[in-house]
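Page 37, top half.
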Amino acid sequence: MAEFLSPYETSKLLEGVIPAEKVARPNWLQSAFGTVTTRDTETVNFDVEFATKNTPAMYVAPNADAPLIQLQGYGTKELRFAYVKEGLSSPDYEEINFRQMGQPFGQVDIMANWVANVRKKLTVTEANFENLFELNASNLIFTGVHTAESEKHPKVYYDFARTKVTDDAGYLAGNVPEIDLTTLVGNGGTGKRAWGSTGGTAAPTPYKDFVKACQTSLRKGPIRAAVLSGNAYEALESDILANFKDAADLTKAVESRIELKILPTIEKYQDLNFRRSIPIGQGMYVDVYTYDAIYHDRTTGVATKFVPDGYMAILPSSDKGIKIYGRIMHLKARYAAMPRFVNTWIDPKSDKMESEIHCNYLMGFSDIDSVVSWKVM
């Protein structure tokens, strides 16, 4: 005797989707690279000045020879592009012949599922490119160097030679593009200058360090924003509230600095959080952000922050950052320079489509010393 299913067993309804842990799709750091262009050359050259000095003229008697002017030295860095590819294949029949996530029960459209599957893979591919650009931007901002390397790509090392201060005399001089306060002994020669450390003749002052970092960047031009790790901002905030209450009171209201209709969207999708606008003197304010976005390592899956713990960076206007797309090394692309190229081919026997998305790029700063990075904790 046949057993029929009851209406309660056949009338399944989809009430919604239980989302997985939110993963931000960040691209805020790479927005510091506002100059985007293409280049048909195989390399990109950057001139690097060194031994620059700001010397006054010399007093010379009328009957004595004048000293000859000597220009500062310079060298040239010849940098190669880094090649990136992501592959995607059309889904198998078994992969699309069942209900996809979010679809009603009992309604399977195989061709619609095929299109949706490929579209999702393209979306993930573009997100992977953006994550790589963001990691590249993070490395250049916080360390001044970036390495493009994998088991399928030769090592390409980018070092833009940011000025590093390694002694207390250089710190006190005030022009400090890069420094590690956790290794620097100061405060009377007996205590570390790292935020939160003890010892020496005076406690570290994060607010004064923040102003000094901003003044370093201002030597090169206007400041766009400051970005701090969460623990570094907590130390800065505590110092402002405890020792610089006037500076805290002078902070401009958020309403006058940020479009409130835009900010929540940025915070939701990029883990970017506006904290305050801090006065740095002469009527100038700098917007301060924390940025908690993460990426997952391709092979290990380890979650890593784009802004490492204990760091503070002052970002200049975005025209100092350069992103250059080079030649796509494929005949179908005619070896032309372009941001992306999709190479697609079809297996004539199975009619299965395979694709590879190509990108050949280089990121850098035209003036790396305008990007100030301090390890403070």
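Page 37, bottom half:
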Amino acid sequence: MWVKVVKLKKKRNGVETDEPLLGDFALNNLLRTLKMAIEAASEKYETRIKTISNKFIKKRPVSRPEPDSEVGDAATRIKKVFYEDLDRDDPRWSHFMLVLLGLRQAERLGLQLRSVVLDGENSKLRIYQQLDFLKSKGGWYLKDTTKNSQPREIPIWGEFLDAIQKRLELREKWSKQEDWNPDSKFADLLFLGEGGKLITRRQDTPMWHTLGLEMRGHLARHITGHLMAVNNISEDTAKKVLGHRSDAYFHYYRMISTASAGQELSQLYRPGSLT
């Protein structure tokens, strides 16, 4: 069964392509779930299935698509766009500013008005759902859980708070126009376009590229982790903001900060350090 899953390919216009149906990260998530089911059955029936599963179901090696240097360069470019180049009256500024809080694309697009708590220094975002697509659900729908099934709260301040307030002002302005007619399922979303149109990944990604950021949008999440790592934000805080339950922050983001590591290690052999 596992071999069949690994070999499945995507189809376009009914024709099978060379592109795998699931990437390595998705396959490993599927593998983890499969092994959990096998191990539960093994313990229940006192069998050796667990040993067999470890032998025949191998975890696939994975790494982030972008090397450390590319993440660092991208971080510099993104900060320049949002803090220097982009007009803050441009709707794209308020639409994308929250990517620098590490929100996943589906989480950001699934934010509702009640997700936003404006309370001065205690202002925060409540992340508890995501915008998802399933044919069996009739297309786009609000999935009432996050990727790891854990809701979280993220503090908002400074430019992030400004961006949300700017977005609320835009919604208020657009809602008074005659063409405002959002789908009732999505009428409470924070990020709706003019006329109340739903913004999905299909519109979000091309809009991201209009900022001159020809990079996959999810890279911004890695940039958030990178910036936290190089600024020595604690692992607990980073995991809370990014919504990680595993050691992904340590493995994928703390390790990115090779420059910081080099600076620390250089102190080992400075004059007088060996006395």
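Margin note: The domain at 68-256 is CATH 1.10.443.10 (hpI Integrase; Chain A).
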